[in-house]
Protein backbone atom coordinates (compact mmCIF):
# COMPACT_ATOMS: atom_id res chain seq x y z
CA UNK A 1 0.00 0.00 0.00
CA UNK A 2 1.24 3.45 -0.79
CA UNK A 3 1.54 5.45 2.39
CA UNK A 4 -0.93 8.30 2.37
CA UNK A 5 0.79 11.63 2.42
CA UNK A 6 0.18 13.26 5.77
CA UNK A 7 -1.05 16.76 6.24
CA UNK A 8 2.12 17.87 4.47
CA UNK A 9 0.16 18.03 1.25
CA UNK A 10 -2.17 20.57 2.76
CA UNK A 11 0.85 22.39 4.06
CA UNK A 12 2.39 22.38 0.62
CA UNK A 13 -0.60 23.97 -1.01
CA UNK A 14 -0.74 26.65 1.66
CA UNK A 15 2.98 27.08 1.96
CA UNK A 16 4.62 30.41 1.81
CA UNK A 17 5.90 30.60 -1.75
CA UNK A 18 8.95 32.66 -0.89
CA UNK A 19 11.95 31.15 -2.71
CA UNK A 20 14.85 30.46 -0.35
CA UNK A 21 17.10 28.38 -2.58
CA UNK A 22 17.22 28.86 -6.33
CA UNK A 23 19.40 26.41 -8.27
CA UNK A 24 19.82 27.36 -11.92
CA UNK A 25 21.33 25.22 -14.64
CA UNK A 26 23.76 23.42 -12.32
CA UNK A 27 26.16 21.24 -14.28
CA UNK A 28 28.73 18.99 -12.60
CA UNK A 29 31.13 16.61 -14.30
CA UNK A 30 33.65 14.15 -12.90
CA UNK A 31 36.67 14.45 -15.14
CA UNK A 32 38.09 10.96 -15.63
CA UNK A 33 40.78 9.63 -18.01
CA UNK A 34 38.03 7.91 -20.00
CA UNK A 35 36.01 11.09 -20.40
CA UNK A 36 33.70 13.31 -18.35
CA UNK A 37 31.03 11.62 -16.26
CA UNK A 38 28.04 13.95 -16.60
CA UNK A 39 26.73 13.49 -13.08
CA UNK A 40 24.48 16.57 -12.98
CA UNK A 41 23.30 17.75 -16.38
CA UNK A 42 22.21 21.35 -15.96
CA UNK A 43 19.47 21.03 -13.33
CA UNK A 44 17.25 23.85 -12.10
CA UNK A 45 14.85 23.88 -9.17
CA UNK A 46 13.66 26.04 -6.32
CA UNK A 47 13.05 25.43 -2.64
CA UNK A 48 10.42 27.50 -0.86
CA UNK A 49 10.62 28.84 2.67
CA UNK A 50 9.65 26.29 5.31
CA UNK A 51 9.09 23.32 3.01
CA UNK A 52 10.72 19.91 2.68
CA UNK A 53 11.59 18.89 -0.85
CA UNK A 54 12.35 15.24 -1.52
CA UNK A 55 15.09 14.46 -4.03
CA UNK A 56 14.67 10.92 -5.30
CA UNK A 57 16.03 8.72 -8.05
CA UNK A 58 17.97 5.54 -8.49
CA UNK A 59 21.48 5.03 -7.18
CA UNK A 60 24.04 6.92 -9.24
CA UNK A 61 21.55 9.43 -10.72
CA UNK A 62 23.45 12.36 -9.19
CA UNK A 63 21.61 13.21 -5.95
CA UNK A 64 24.69 13.43 -3.74
CA UNK A 65 26.70 15.20 -6.43
CA UNK A 66 23.94 17.80 -6.79
CA UNK A 67 23.89 18.27 -2.99
CA UNK A 68 27.66 18.60 -2.81
CA UNK A 69 27.52 20.99 -5.75
CA UNK A 70 25.03 23.22 -3.97
CA UNK A 71 27.47 23.36 -1.05
CA UNK A 72 30.47 23.69 -3.38
CA UNK A 73 32.03 20.65 -1.80
CA UNK A 74 32.19 18.40 -4.86
CA UNK A 75 35.23 16.17 -4.36
CA UNK A 76 37.90 15.92 -7.05
CA UNK A 77 37.79 14.97 -9.92
CA UNK A 78 34.34 16.57 -9.81
CA UNK A 79 33.95 20.11 -11.10
CA UNK A 80 31.06 22.55 -11.28
CA UNK A 81 31.04 23.66 -14.91
CA UNK A 82 28.05 25.97 -14.86
CA UNK A 83 25.18 27.15 -12.75
CA UNK A 84 23.94 29.63 -10.22
CA UNK A 85 23.06 28.89 -6.61
CA UNK A 86 21.14 31.68 -4.92
CA UNK A 87 20.22 31.58 -1.25
CA UNK A 88 17.83 34.38 -0.36
CA UNK A 89 19.25 36.13 -3.41
CA UNK A 90 22.91 35.68 -2.39
CA UNK A 91 24.93 34.11 -5.21
CA UNK A 92 26.88 31.36 -3.44
CA UNK A 93 28.90 30.42 -6.55
CA UNK A 94 30.18 33.98 -6.63
CA UNK A 95 31.81 33.50 -3.21
CA UNK A 96 35.33 32.18 -2.87
CA UNK A 97 37.91 31.33 -0.21
CA UNK A 98 37.36 32.75 3.24
CA UNK A 99 34.07 34.41 2.32
CA UNK A 100 32.65 31.09 1.12
CA UNK A 101 33.87 29.20 4.20
CA UNK A 102 32.39 31.85 6.42
CA UNK A 103 28.99 31.89 4.73
CA UNK A 104 28.59 28.21 3.86
CA UNK A 105 27.30 26.75 7.11
CA UNK A 106 25.40 29.91 7.95
CA UNK A 107 23.43 29.84 4.73
CA UNK A 108 23.30 26.14 4.04
CA UNK A 109 24.26 23.00 5.89
CA UNK A 110 24.53 19.35 5.02
CA UNK A 111 23.79 16.14 6.84
CA UNK A 112 26.03 14.06 4.60
CA UNK A 113 25.29 10.57 3.30
CA UNK A 114 26.51 8.17 6.01
CA UNK A 115 26.74 11.18 8.36
CA UNK A 116 26.96 9.19 11.56
CA UNK A 117 30.18 7.59 10.37
CA UNK A 118 31.64 10.98 9.62
CA UNK A 119 31.75 12.02 13.28
CA UNK A 120 35.32 12.24 14.56
CA UNK A 121 35.69 9.16 16.84
CA UNK A 122 38.30 10.76 19.10
CA UNK A 123 36.40 13.98 19.81
CA UNK A 124 33.44 14.33 22.14
CA UNK A 125 30.25 15.24 20.29
CA UNK A 126 30.07 18.53 22.21
CA UNK A 127 33.54 19.55 21.00
CA UNK A 128 32.66 18.81 17.39
CA UNK A 129 29.57 21.00 17.60
CA UNK A 130 31.42 23.60 19.70
CA UNK A 131 34.24 23.79 17.15
CA UNK A 132 31.79 24.43 14.33
CA UNK A 133 30.24 27.30 16.30
CA UNK A 134 33.61 28.79 17.32
CA UNK A 135 35.00 28.55 13.77
CA UNK A 136 32.16 30.68 12.48
CA UNK A 137 31.43 32.95 15.41
CA UNK A 138 34.72 33.15 17.29
CA UNK A 139 35.53 32.19 20.87
CA UNK A 140 32.77 32.58 23.43
CA UNK A 141 32.39 32.04 27.17
CA UNK A 142 32.38 28.31 28.05
CA UNK A 143 29.08 28.38 29.90
CA UNK A 144 27.37 30.22 27.04
CA UNK A 145 28.66 27.67 24.55
CA UNK A 146 27.57 24.80 26.80
CA UNK A 147 24.07 26.23 27.16
CA UNK A 148 23.84 26.60 23.40
CA UNK A 149 24.97 23.01 22.75
CA UNK A 150 22.50 21.67 25.33
CA UNK A 151 19.76 23.68 23.67
CA UNK A 152 20.66 22.08 20.34
CA UNK A 153 20.59 18.65 22.01
CA UNK A 154 17.11 19.39 23.36
CA UNK A 155 15.93 20.44 19.89
CA UNK A 156 16.99 17.12 18.41
CA UNK A 157 15.86 15.03 21.38
CA UNK A 158 19.28 14.12 22.78
CA UNK A 159 19.56 13.85 26.57
CA UNK A 160 22.03 16.20 28.33
CA UNK A 161 24.29 13.26 29.28
CA UNK A 162 25.39 13.07 25.64
CA UNK A 163 27.38 16.24 26.38
CA UNK A 164 30.19 14.16 27.85
CA UNK A 165 30.08 11.25 25.44
CA UNK A 166 32.16 10.18 22.44
CA UNK A 167 30.46 9.08 19.20
CA UNK A 168 31.14 5.37 19.85
CA UNK A 169 29.11 5.62 23.05
CA UNK A 170 25.99 6.63 21.10
CA UNK A 171 23.50 4.45 19.23
CA UNK A 172 23.05 4.95 15.49
CA UNK A 173 19.92 7.04 15.97
CA UNK A 174 21.63 9.25 18.57
CA UNK A 175 24.64 9.76 16.32
CA UNK A 176 22.36 10.79 13.49
CA UNK A 177 20.59 13.23 15.80
CA UNK A 178 23.99 14.63 16.83
CA UNK A 179 24.65 15.22 13.10
CA UNK A 180 21.32 17.03 12.83
CA UNK A 181 22.32 19.17 15.85
CA UNK A 182 25.54 20.05 14.05
CA UNK A 183 23.65 20.96 10.87
CA UNK A 184 21.36 23.38 12.72
CA UNK A 185 24.05 24.86 14.98
CA UNK A 186 24.33 28.05 12.94
CA UNK A 187 20.61 28.25 12.08
CA UNK A 188 20.96 28.15 8.30
CA UNK A 189 17.79 28.76 6.27
CA UNK A 190 18.40 25.60 4.21
CA UNK A 191 19.50 22.12 5.29
CA UNK A 192 20.26 19.28 2.90
CA UNK A 193 19.89 15.81 4.42
CA UNK A 194 21.44 13.11 2.24
CA UNK A 195 19.70 9.83 3.04
CA UNK A 196 19.48 10.74 6.73
CA UNK A 197 17.77 7.49 7.72
CA UNK A 198 19.20 4.92 5.35
CA UNK A 199 21.56 3.04 7.68
CA UNK A 200 19.07 2.80 10.54
CA UNK A 201 16.51 0.19 11.49
CA UNK A 202 12.96 1.07 10.64
CA UNK A 203 11.89 2.15 14.14
CA UNK A 204 14.88 4.43 14.61
CA UNK A 205 14.38 5.71 11.05
CA UNK A 206 11.01 7.05 12.09
CA UNK A 207 12.48 8.71 15.21
CA UNK A 208 15.14 10.47 13.14
CA UNK A 209 12.55 11.45 10.51
CA UNK A 210 10.34 12.93 13.24
CA UNK A 211 13.35 14.80 14.63
CA UNK A 212 13.86 16.40 11.22
CA UNK A 213 10.17 17.34 11.04
CA UNK A 214 10.33 18.85 14.55
CA UNK A 215 13.42 20.84 13.64
CA UNK A 216 11.75 22.10 10.50
CA UNK A 217 8.63 23.14 12.39
CA UNK A 218 10.46 24.83 15.24
CA UNK A 219 13.13 26.62 13.24
CA UNK A 220 11.09 27.22 10.08
CA UNK A 221 13.98 26.02 7.92
CA UNK A 222 13.68 24.58 4.43
CA UNK A 223 15.06 21.12 3.74
CA UNK A 224 16.04 18.98 0.83
CA UNK A 225 15.66 15.37 1.83
CA UNK A 226 17.47 12.91 -0.39
CA UNK A 227 16.20 9.37 -0.06
CA UNK A 228 15.09 6.09 -1.51
CA UNK A 229 12.34 5.27 0.95
CA UNK A 230 9.22 6.42 -0.90
CA UNK A 231 7.02 5.68 2.13
CA UNK A 232 9.06 8.08 4.20
CA UNK A 233 9.01 10.65 1.41
CA UNK A 234 5.22 10.38 1.32
CA UNK A 235 5.05 11.06 5.04
CA UNK A 236 7.54 13.88 5.20
CA UNK A 237 7.93 15.99 2.12
CA UNK A 238 5.85 18.73 0.52
CA UNK A 239 7.18 18.35 -3.01
CA UNK A 240 9.23 15.75 -4.84
CA UNK A 241 11.98 16.22 -7.41
CA UNK A 242 12.71 13.10 -9.45
CA UNK A 243 16.14 12.70 -11.01
CA UNK A 244 17.24 10.26 -13.66
CA UNK A 245 20.80 10.02 -15.01
CA UNK A 246 21.78 13.54 -14.01
CA UNK A 247 18.54 15.19 -15.15
CA UNK A 248 15.43 16.32 -13.34
CA UNK A 249 12.52 14.56 -15.04
CA UNK A 250 9.61 15.57 -12.81
CA UNK A 251 8.86 18.11 -10.07
CA UNK A 252 5.57 17.66 -8.27
CA UNK A 253 3.67 18.23 -5.06
CA UNK A 254 3.79 15.04 -3.00
CA UNK A 255 0.19 13.88 -3.55
CA UNK A 256 0.28 13.74 -7.37
CA UNK A 257 3.72 12.12 -7.16
CA UNK A 258 2.01 9.04 -5.74
CA UNK A 259 -1.41 9.26 -7.34
CA UNK A 260 -0.72 10.78 -10.74
CA UNK A 261 2.96 10.39 -11.58
CA UNK A 262 3.55 11.66 -15.11
CA UNK A 263 7.05 10.69 -16.18
CA UNK A 264 7.47 7.01 -17.12
CA UNK A 265 10.43 6.81 -14.74
CA UNK A 266 8.38 8.22 -11.84
CA UNK A 267 5.60 5.78 -12.72
CA UNK A 268 8.13 2.95 -12.53
CA UNK A 269 9.42 4.22 -9.21
CA UNK A 270 5.92 4.38 -7.72
CA UNK A 271 4.83 1.02 -9.13
CA UNK A 272 7.90 -0.53 -7.50
CA UNK A 273 6.61 0.25 -4.01
CA UNK A 274 5.69 -3.12 -2.50
CA UNK A 275 2.16 -3.78 -1.38
CA UNK A 276 0.96 -6.40 1.09
CA UNK A 277 -2.69 -5.99 -0.01
CA UNK A 278 -2.11 -6.79 -3.60
CA UNK A 279 0.72 -9.23 -4.01
CA UNK A 280 1.78 -9.00 -7.60
CA UNK A 281 4.88 -10.06 -9.48
CA UNK A 282 7.73 -7.67 -8.87
CA UNK A 283 7.97 -5.18 -11.66
CA UNK A 284 11.25 -5.50 -13.49
CA UNK A 285 12.33 -3.13 -16.21
CA UNK A 286 14.48 -3.98 -19.12
CA UNK A 287 17.35 -1.87 -20.34
CA UNK A 288 20.17 -0.18 -18.56
CA UNK A 289 20.90 3.43 -17.81
CA UNK A 290 23.26 4.79 -20.44
CA UNK A 291 26.94 5.34 -19.71
CA UNK A 292 27.03 8.79 -18.11
CA UNK A 293 30.24 9.47 -20.05
CA UNK A 294 28.46 9.01 -23.32
CA UNK A 295 24.82 10.05 -23.13
CA UNK A 296 22.68 9.50 -26.24
CA UNK A 297 21.06 12.55 -27.81
CA UNK A 298 17.52 13.11 -26.62
CA UNK A 299 15.79 11.94 -23.47
CA UNK A 300 17.95 10.37 -20.76
CA UNK A 301 15.32 7.67 -20.07
CA UNK A 302 14.93 6.50 -23.69
CA UNK A 303 16.81 3.22 -23.24
CA UNK A 304 14.38 2.02 -20.59
CA UNK A 305 11.19 3.84 -21.46
CA UNK A 306 8.23 1.66 -22.49
CA UNK A 307 6.77 4.60 -24.46
CA UNK A 308 9.87 5.68 -26.35
CA UNK A 309 9.17 7.55 -29.62
CA UNK A 310 11.42 8.79 -32.41
CA UNK A 311 11.58 12.30 -31.08
CA UNK A 312 12.83 11.02 -27.70
CA UNK A 313 16.02 9.85 -29.41
CA UNK A 314 16.70 13.22 -30.99
CA UNK A 315 16.27 16.12 -28.61
CA UNK A 316 16.07 16.39 -24.84
CA UNK A 317 12.50 17.19 -23.80
CA UNK A 318 11.94 20.52 -22.08
CA UNK A 319 10.32 20.77 -18.68
CA UNK A 320 6.66 21.71 -19.10
CA UNK A 321 4.08 22.59 -16.46
CA UNK A 322 1.11 20.20 -16.77
CA UNK A 323 -0.68 21.24 -13.61
CA UNK A 324 0.09 24.06 -11.21
CA UNK A 325 3.45 23.22 -9.62
CA UNK A 326 3.56 19.86 -11.44
CA UNK A 327 6.24 19.82 -14.12
CA UNK A 328 7.53 17.02 -16.29
CA UNK A 329 10.13 16.61 -19.04
CA UNK A 330 8.56 14.08 -21.41
CA UNK A 331 7.24 14.17 -24.99
CA UNK A 332 4.16 12.18 -23.94
CA UNK A 333 2.82 15.48 -22.66
CA UNK A 334 3.57 17.65 -25.67
CA UNK A 335 6.41 18.62 -27.87
CA UNK A 336 7.18 22.00 -26.44
CA UNK A 337 10.43 23.67 -27.31
CA UNK A 338 13.30 21.27 -26.64
CA UNK A 339 15.96 21.92 -24.03
CA UNK A 340 19.43 22.89 -25.32
N1 LIG B 1 34.80 10.39 -7.95
C1 LIG B 1 34.05 10.04 -9.01
N2 LIG B 1 34.61 9.80 -10.21
C2 LIG B 1 33.85 9.46 -11.27
N3 LIG B 1 32.51 9.33 -11.23
C3 LIG B 1 31.91 9.55 -10.05
C4 LIG B 1 32.63 9.92 -8.88
N4 LIG B 1 31.76 10.06 -7.86
C5 LIG B 1 30.53 9.79 -8.37
N5 LIG B 1 30.63 9.49 -9.68
C6 LIG B 1 29.52 9.15 -10.58
O1 LIG B 1 28.60 10.21 -10.59
C7 LIG B 1 27.28 9.70 -10.66
C8 LIG B 1 26.42 10.31 -9.58
O2 LIG B 1 26.86 9.82 -8.30
P1 LIG B 1 26.14 10.23 -6.96
O3 LIG B 1 26.96 9.71 -5.83
O4 LIG B 1 25.89 11.70 -7.00
O5 LIG B 1 24.77 9.45 -7.08
P2 LIG B 1 23.59 9.28 -6.01
O6 LIG B 1 22.33 9.58 -6.75
O7 LIG B 1 23.88 10.06 -4.78
O8 LIG B 1 23.63 7.71 -5.70
P3 LIG B 1 23.28 6.90 -4.34
O9 LIG B 1 21.78 6.82 -4.29
O10 LIG B 1 23.92 5.58 -4.56
O11 LIG B 1 23.87 7.64 -3.18
C9 LIG B 1 27.38 8.18 -10.58
O12 LIG B 1 27.23 7.63 -11.85
C10 LIG B 1 28.76 7.94 -10.05
O13 LIG B 1 29.30 6.75 -10.57
MG1 LIG C 1 24.16 9.54 -2.82
Question: Can you tell me about this structure?
Answer:
The chain has a single domain, classed as Rossmann fold (3-Layer(aba) Sandwich), CATH 3.40.50. It contains 10 helices and 12 strands. The chain has helices at 8-14, 63-70, 97-107, 125-137, 142-155, 172-184, 202-219, 230-236, 254-259, 264-271; strands spanning 19-32, 35-48, 52-56, 78-87, 90-91, 108-111, 190-194, 222-226, 239-244, 247-253, 320-323, 326-328. It has an 8-stranded mixed sheet with strand order 6-7-8-3-9-10-12-11, sandwiched between helices. The chain has a 4-stranded antiparallel sheet with strand order 2-1-4-5. Strand 9 and strand 10 form a beta hairpin. Helix 5 packs across helix 6 and helix 6 packs parallel to helix 7 (202-219). The two termini are 39 Å apart. The relative contact order is 0.15. Bound molecules: adenosine-5'-triphosphate and magnesium ion.
List the helices and strands and how they pair.
Elements: H1 8-14, E1 19-32, E2 35-48, E3 52-56, H2 63-70, E4 78-87, E5 90-91, H3 97-107, E6 108-111, H4 125-137, H5 142-155, H6 172-184, E7 190-194, H7 202-219, E8 222-226, H8 230-236, E9 239-244, E10 247-253, H9 254-259, H10 264-271, E11 320-323, E12 326-328
Parallel strand pairs: 3-8, 3-9, 6-7, 7-8
Antiparallel strand pairs: 1-2, 1-4, 4-5, 9-10, 10-12, 11-12
Helix pairs in contact: 5-6, 6-7
Amino acid sequence: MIAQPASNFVRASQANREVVLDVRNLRIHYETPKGDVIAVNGISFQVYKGEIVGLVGESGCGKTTAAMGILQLVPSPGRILAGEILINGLDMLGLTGEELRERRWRELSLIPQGAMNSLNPVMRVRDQIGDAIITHEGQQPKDKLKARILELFALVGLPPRVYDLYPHELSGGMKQRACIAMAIALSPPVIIADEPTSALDVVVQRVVAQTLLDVKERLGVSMIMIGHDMGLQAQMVDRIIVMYAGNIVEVTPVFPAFHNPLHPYTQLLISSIPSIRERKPLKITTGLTHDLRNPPPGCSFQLRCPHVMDICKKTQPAMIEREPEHRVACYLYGKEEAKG
